[in-house]
Specification:
Elements: H1 6-16, H2 18-43, H3 54-85, H4 88-103, H5 106-116, H6 121-137, H7 141-165, H8 187-206, H9 209-236, H10 242-269
Helix pairs in contact: 1-4, 2-9, 3-10, 5-9, 6-7, 6-8, 7-8, 7-10, 8-9, 8-10, 9-10
C-alpha cells in the first residue's frame, strides 16, 4: 500500500478498530431509528384529534415507504456501480477485511459466530414457518400470505442478485464459520432486515392498539439492532466484504418498504377495513 494512499490507510485503520466501529455505528443507528419512528408516529399514523382523513395518512405512509425504496435502491446501485467500474472498491474491501482479520480477538469472533446464526437460512425458514402458522391459527390468513411473500420474495431476490453479480467471497479458511456461493449482496444482511423488520411490523398489527403503541419503539429498535448485528457479523467472520453487507442492507430495506407499503395499501382498501 503506498504511503500517500489516504483512503487505503483510513480503511485499514477502521478495520483495525472494527469492534469500536461496530459499537459506534450501532450507537448512532438506534437514535436515528428512534427519531424516524417518532416522525412516523407523529405524522403518518391517524390520531383522534387530527382533522386529516385516513386516506391522507395512508398517502403519507406510502410516500415514506417509496422514499425508503428509492433510497435503498439508489444505495445498492451506487455500490454495484463502484464495484463494476474498476478494482478500487474491491481493493479497499480487501484491505478492510484483512485488517479486521488481523485485529479481532478470538472471543469476539465466537460471539459473532453466534450472532450470525440469527440470519442463517435455517433460522429464518423456521421463524418464517412458525410465524405463518401462528397467523393462520389466529385467522389472519391475508397477513400470513403477505408474510410468506415477503420472506420468500427476498430470498428469491437475493439469489437472483448473487447470480447476476457473481462476486467471489473473501478467503475465510480456518474461520469459525464457513460459507459457499457468491458473495454480493449478503443474504444474511438482507434476510435479517426483511424478516426481523417484518416480524416487528406483524407483531404491531396483531397486538391490541394500546399495547402496540407502547411496544412499537422497543420492537423497531430490537429489529434494527438485530439486523445490523447479523450483517456486521458476516464481515467479522470473513465470509463477506463490507460492501456485500451494505448492499444487503440496501436491498433488504428496499424490499421491506415494498412489502409494508403493499400491505398498508391493501389493508386500507379492503372492504372490511382490516387485514384478515
Amino acid at each position: 500500500m503506498p504511503t500517500n494512499d489516504f483512503p487505503a490507510a483510513l480503511v485499514q485503520t477502521l478495520g483495525a478498530h472494527a469492534l469500536l466501529l461496530f459499537a459506534v455505528l450501532l450507537a448512532l443507528l438506534l437514535p436515528l431509528v428512534a427519531a424516524l419512528w417518532w416522525l412516523a408516529r407523529r405524522y403518518a399514523l391517524p390520531r383522534e384529534s387530527s382533522t386529516l382523513s385516513p386516506g391522507v395518512y395512508l398517502l403519507i405512509r406510502l410516500t415514506a415507504g417509496f422514499a425508503l425504496l428509492v433510497g435503498g435502491a439508489a444505495l445498492f446501485a451506487e455500490i454495484a456501480e463502484e464495484l463494476g467500474d474498476g478494482i478500487r472498491a474491491g481493493q479497499l474491501d480487501q484491505i478492510f477485511s484483512d485488517a479486521v482479520r488481523d485485529h479481532t480477538a478470538a472471543w469476539a469472533l465466537q460471539a459473532f459466530a453466534g450472532i450470525t446464526r440469527l440470519g442463517d437460512t435455517t433460522t429464518l425458514s423456521v421463524l418464517g414457518g412458525v410465524v405463518a402458522a401462528a397467523l393462520l391459527l389466529r385467522g389472519r390468513r391475508w397477513l400470513a400470505l403477505a408474510w410468506v411473500l415477503a420472506v420468500c420474495g427476498n430470498a428469491l431476490l437475493n439469489t437472483t442478485l448473487k447470480a447476476l453479480f457473481a462476486r467471489t467471497r473473501p478467503l475465510h479458511e480456518g474461520g469459525p464459520i464457513q460459507a459457499e456461493g457468491w458473495s454480493f449482496p449478503s443474504g444474511h444482511s438482507s434476510g435479517a432486515v426483511v424478516v426481523y423488520g417484518m416480524l416487528a411490523y406483524v407483531l404491531l398489527r396483531c397486538l391490541p392498539p394500546a399495547l402496540a403503541w407502547r411496544a412499537s419503539l422497543p420492537l423497531v429498535l430490537l429489529a434494527a439492532a438485530t439486523a445490523f448485528s447479523v450483517g456486521s457479523s458476516r464481515v467479522f467472520l470473513q465470509v463477506h466484504f463490507a460492501t456485500d453487507v451494505l448492499a444487503g442492507f440496501a436491498s433488504g430495506t428496499a424490499w421491506l418498504a415494498v412489502c409494508v407499503a403493499s400491505i398498508e395499501w391493501a389493508s386500507h382498501y379492503r372492504a372490511s377495513g382490516s387485514w384478515r
